[in-house]
Amino acid sequence: MDKVIFGDNQFFGVNHLSEEKARQQMKKFKDIKNILRVLDDVNDMGIKTFMVTTYESVEQICDHVRINSDQYKDFKINPCLPYAHKYANSVAAMGIFGTLKKYLKGNIVQSISKGGVALARKDFEKIMEILIDAELSIFKGVTVEAVFLQNVVTDLLLGLGMFDFFEAFVRYVENRYKVRAGFITMNMPMLYDVLESRGISNPVICSSINKINFRMSGGIEQYKTYLAEKEFHAIAMQVLAAGALRPKEAMEFIGSLEGVDSVLFGSSTKEHILDTKLLIEQYL
């Protein structure tokens, strides 16, 4: 997995520093052309991994990468599932059946029938498989290296003690799609211990890692210990701690740690993307 990974928060209005800037970004990136323009720049800079939530515009992004396959050679899109707002908005607009019809690709009758039987039997693993298939159908023909479980789900399952789902998720993604299963979390040490206890070795874990302990449940010292002593692919996100750290200071800290393998970051301007890429390559 690459050291430099580009993320997508900026494309749907996530800005921890300024609500006004978040609104401006959301307005700007409603036009898919502006997203594709940024991705073209990212690809041209040599950043070849894009971690993306499965929001509405992703299908058009995949179309762009497929159509321009020569330009996007070696470019990987790693989905993060699920994007809960998408389903909530759809149900509000068109109801449950309309939402199922919209997102279940292929044989909708068969998919709904399977889902209904699974729900009646409380077979949540089967429901999970149906939803994964529906989410990943739009990535056909695009190179996917790993599929991630969003932290809103990972950490909910952690809190509820529903650890069987982690095994089921890894088993289904790796057996059916032949790619790695990854997890996004705000509590890396706890997740690692659970995965290890379930026999999931060398997992891919994406978590907040930064100098000021921002969103690092368990504490920064425990993170340092796990990074140095445990075997897993560690992806650091929120390295700037929502803008509290300057990029150079943030990357010097990341570079000082043992065990960080990749850095995930997002930005909307060509200048900032290139500067951050160069800092990651310098310190990691």
Q: What is the overall shape?
A: globular
Given the structure, what is the number of helices? 12
Estimate the mean pLDDT confidence: 89
Q: What is the number of beta strands? A: 8
Helix content: 40-55%
Query: In what order do the strands lie side by side in the largest sheet?
Result: 1-8-7-6-5-4-3-2
Topology pattern, helix = H, strand = E: EHHEHEHHHEHHEHEHEHEH
Main sheet properties: 8 strands, parallel
**How far apart, in Å, are the first and last alpha carbons?**
14 Å
What are the segments in which pLDDT stays under 50 over at least 5 consecutive residues? none
Structural class: alpha/beta
Query: What is the radius of gyration computed over CA atoms, rounded to a whole number of angstroms?
Result: 19 Å
Strand content: 5-15%
Features:
single chain; 284 residues; alpha/beta; eight-stranded parallel sheet; 14% strand; globular
Protein architecture, described:
Helix 6 (124-136) packs across helix 8. Helix content is 52%, strand content 14%. It has 12 helices and 8 strands. The model has no long low-confidence stretch (mean pLDDT 89). The radius of gyration is 19 Å and the shape is globular. Strands 1-8-7-6-5-4-3-2 form an 8-stranded parallel sheet. It is α/β, with parallel strands linked by helices.
Layout of helices and strands:
Elements: E1 4-6, H1 19-28, H2 32-44, E2 49-53, H3 58-67, E3 76-81, H4 84-103, H5 108-120, H6 124-136, E4 146-149, H7 151-160, H8 164-177, E5 180-185, H9 188-197, E6 204-208, H10 220-229, E7 233-237, H11 247-256, E8 260-265, H12 270-283
Parallel strand pairs: 1-8, 2-3, 3-4, 4-5, 5-6, 6-7, 7-8
Helix pairs in contact: 5-6, 6-8, 11-12
